[in-house]
Amino acid sequence: MNLPSETLTDICIANTFPEKSQTLSKQLNLPICLESNSEQWLDWVNDKKDPMLKLALCAHKQGPVSIDFLSGKKAHRRQFGGGKGQPLVRAMGQLENGMPKIIDATAGMGGDSYVLASLGFEVQMIERSPIVAALLNDALNRANQSLDNDLPNDLPDELQQSIQNLSLVNANSTDYLLNHQPDVDVIYMDPMYPEKKKKAAAKKEMQALQQLVGPDLDSEKLLETALKTATYRVVVKRPKGADPVYCALNNIQPSSNISSPNTRYDIYVIKALKASGQL
Predict the structure, then answer these.
(1) Dihedral-angle region of residue 250 (phi above 0 means left; psi in -120 to 50 means alpha; beta otherwise)
(2) CA torsion 90→142→129→107, rounded to 10°?
(3) 128 near 213, Cβ under 8 Å?
(4) pLDDT tier for residue 81 given thresholds of 50, 70 and 90
């Protein structure tokens, strides 16, 4: 997700909490909702299980979509996702002097980033969509607030470290890598591809994300830039059976891959590519 394909003018901010609304309106340069006929809007919601207000993307066709790092699907995945043995984590590799630092160049709703952060990796999320980045930032702020205030004493240290391992940048990933040249071991990519017509309906979060940002059209450029930036490896998540992302730089192919039932992680080992003269 590296081109700002969302039409920001089609989204407004509900005036449910005027002070919050005005601040976010200035931050995102979005209007306050004056009518109720907008297809999508941002608002703050809560529920009986969690009274804390969450920034959410709302629509008439589906329920509100927010991000939560301390409960729900992300918390379940942290606890029961397979730990360090799961394919995503194995694909990141292991350095002799510790765990690699990671840039998640296509952060999306932050699911993969949080799994990695909960297992000790330091992860910088890069998300090009200002709206998705606002949802991520709200989730990080709420997580820190909960940990500071009243989190039950079951795994506070572990959860605190997981959140501390996460940081966020709202930027075009290719431009960010080119302009900042960050010192990073692993760059992770999970490009979004056009939805297949016969495919089952996507989950609510994915539907909202697809509607906001659409398919990635510059994955090839991002891969080439990532290969020139990462010091250890680049990992690209692909649907099982799909071709690797094409790389115009010497038509570089993955060094290896790790597969799961529906997903393949293509691994590009920087040291090997440099030794072969491809980089």
Answers:
(1) left
(2) 0
(3) yes
(4) very low
169 SS3 class: strand
CB-based burial label for 32 (10 Å; 0-12, 13-18, 19+) = middle
Q: How distant, in Å, are the alpha carbons of 231, 245, 262 from that of 253?
A: 17, 9, 21
Whole-model pTM over 0.85 = yes
- The CATH class for the domain spanning 67-275 reads alpha beta
User: Which stretches does DSSP call E strand in 62-213?
Assistant: 102-104, 123-127, 166-170, 186-189
Question: How far apart are alpha carbons 139 and 134 in whole angstroms?
Answer: 9
Neighbours of 145 (CB within 10 A): 12
How does residue 50 score in pLDDT terms, banded at 50, 70 and 90? confident
Sorting pLDDT into bands at 50, 70 and 90, what band is 25? Answer: very high
Domain ranges across the chain: 67-275
When pLDDT is cut at 50, 70 and 90, the band that residue 6 belongs to is very low
DSSP tag of 51: -
E strands in the chain: 11-13, 40-45, 54-59, 102-104, 123-127, 166-170, 186-189, 233-239, 256-259, 263-269
In the numeric block, which tokens belong to residue 14?
């509900």
d(CA 266, CA 257): 4
pLDDT, tens only, 211-252: 676 666 789 999 999 999 999 999 999 998 999 999 999 999
